[in-house]
Here is the input.
Amino acid sequence: MRLFAHSCPACEGLEGFSCPEAEIATRRAFLAGVGGFATTFLAAPAVAQALTGSTRRIAIRRVQTGDSFEGIYWREGRYEREALRRLDAIMRDPGMDEATPMDPRLFDVLASVRERLGSDEAWLVISGYRTPETNASRARQSRRVSRASLHMSGMAADCRLPGREALGIARAAADMQTGGVGLYRRDGFVHLDCGPARRW
Ligand SMILES: [Zn+2]
Here is the structure.
């Protein structure tokens, strides 16, 4: 598995949006050094409010690979490096076998929506990080796939939560203003991201 550095296509489609690539670069710098990400990554207020307590847990399973993680990824103000490393691997582009440092606020979004829905199930992740190549080929196949997708910046996940309708998940996330929320009702999944609050 190799890490893939890329320019910032997400910024082209989102006016007035701070560059996620710069934050990912900050996180890379942190990964190379010491310490947590407490000061560089702050979850949206509604997301942080939903996540009370001194630890944050997440349960996810990757549909294509069966890889899974269940446990604490944030403790007392800091993201846990080892947990993020495992989550990054699970969220990799399976077709290209490439990973990127995911924006950890995406895990806050997933954790807070699951909390709001009162579910103990693991998120089933259909799509996490996408290389620009994968995203471009998806965009050619479907008009609903953005060419400036936040999947390429490690900020988005397409997922299902067993026992919950996609509509209910999308409504909860939109109410909480967790970030971007896309409802793909026919396919039974939602797109959630930690970018600006918007819905489609
Ligand atoms: Zn998506």
Remarks:
- Residues 45 and 178 are 9 Å apart (CA to CA).
- The first strand starts at residue 2 and ends at 3.
- The radius of gyration is 15 Å.
- The pocket of zinc ion is lined by residues 127, 151, 156, 158, 182, 191 (CB under 6 Å).
